[in-house]
Amino acid sequence: MTEPRPLSYADAGVDIDAKMGAVARAKDAIRSTFTKGVVGDVGGFGGLFRPDFTGMTDPLLVASADGVGTKLKVAIAAGVHRTVGQDLVNHCVNDILVQGASPLFFLDYIATGRMRPEIVGEVLEGIAKACRENGCALLGGETAEMPGMYAEGDYDIAGTIVGAVDRPKMLDGSRVSEGDLLIGLPSSGLHTNGYSLARKIFFETLGYEPSSPVPELGATAAEALLAVHRSYLGPVLPLVKDRLLSAMAHITGGGFSDNIPRVLPKDLDAVVHPEAWSWPPLFRLLRDAGRIPLAEMLRVFNCGIGMVLIVPPARGLEVKSRLDASREDWKQVGRVQKGARTVRFV
User: Fold this and answer.
1) How many CB atoms lie within 10 A of CB 148?
2) Which of 170, 185, 202, 257 would staple 307 via disulfide (CB 3.0–4.6 Å)?
3) Which CATH number applies to 181-345: 3.40.50.360, 3.50.50.60, 3.90.1150.10, 3.90.650.10?
4) Tens digit of pLDDT for each residue in 19-70?
């Protein structure tokens, strides 16, 4: 009887060479993100970073972790993989920005059922691009091949960001007062939330394919749905440093209804006027095609406003002037009033 041949990891579906090839392909992109705080090179068991807290009186580290949800399903179907890496980083940057923090470094996690170096390389290049744009070092990460965990062609990504803020400039909602202005900054599309409903409307209700032209949008379905989640670091961080804001809310999963209350004192409400800004065509299409009620739209989607700044009235003119100088198409979308830590739409 012939003896069975020795088994290898590849026989179980894990290709170590493919994994190492994907990482090797992205090394130059990773190194291009290195800031002066990075110690060492790509490939260590852990990333090393020497923070510079010059100018801070009481530095705090701020950390957050997130993913991009089922937006990945659109990227996979369309064969477009660079933009989701940018989404991941920018989303995380915004999440710590609302506490007043600027990013220091980023760690990524990519998991797939079968390693395809060209796809993993594209994702890493997108992550590196956004890290460079945000002045954030891509310090390390993990690429995992797990056969049986994911369907053929599927993958998932997640990221962890670490930033720093000087405690006197930290935003935690404690400064919010009755009468504060709500100033909305425009989104660049769906960003990274609401995709399960958006995909249902686009690909089931409307019957589109990713490559289908969408006349109302002047783009294909994939182009509209894969617009990169923007970072608000550039126009907003200077306002934080000059103590012009009471708080901020990143309008992500949970929309206006669940995100703004996270920075409100228990005795105050946010009163939002949904007609204060012009909803981009993408959101009007989703609303009409899905026959979605207004309250549901504002809880699922950003509806064209990706960041809400809460501003003391005395600082309103200065904040608006500086946003104008940054060419931000801001809109005053409401005010803070007495209440019970909820959002009211009027």
Assistant:
1) 8
2) 185
3) 3.90.650.10
4) 777 777 778 888 988 999 899 888 778 889 999 999 999 999 999 999 999 9
Q: Give CA angle at 143 (142, 147), nearest 5°.
A: 135
Q: Identify the pLDDT of residue 1.
A: 59
CB 170 within 8 A of CB 60: yes
User: What one-character-per-residue DSSP string does 12-80 give?
Assistant: GT--HHHHHHHHHHHHHHHHTT--TTEES-TT-SS-EE----TT-SSEEEEEEEEE-TTHHHHHHHHT-
Output the average pLDDT for the chain.
Answer: 93
Helix (H) or strand (E) segment spanning residue 96: helix 82-97
Backbone Cα Rg of the chain: 22
| Six-digit token string for 64 | 């957050």
Please give the structure tokens belonging to residue 83: 């933009």
Comparing CA positions, the residue from 103, 115, 122 lying closest to residue 146 is 115
Q: Which residues of 58-78 are buried (b: 16+ CB within 10 A; e: fewer)?
A: eebebebebbbbbbbbbbbbb
The architecture CATH gives domain 10-169: 2-Layer Sandwich (3.30)
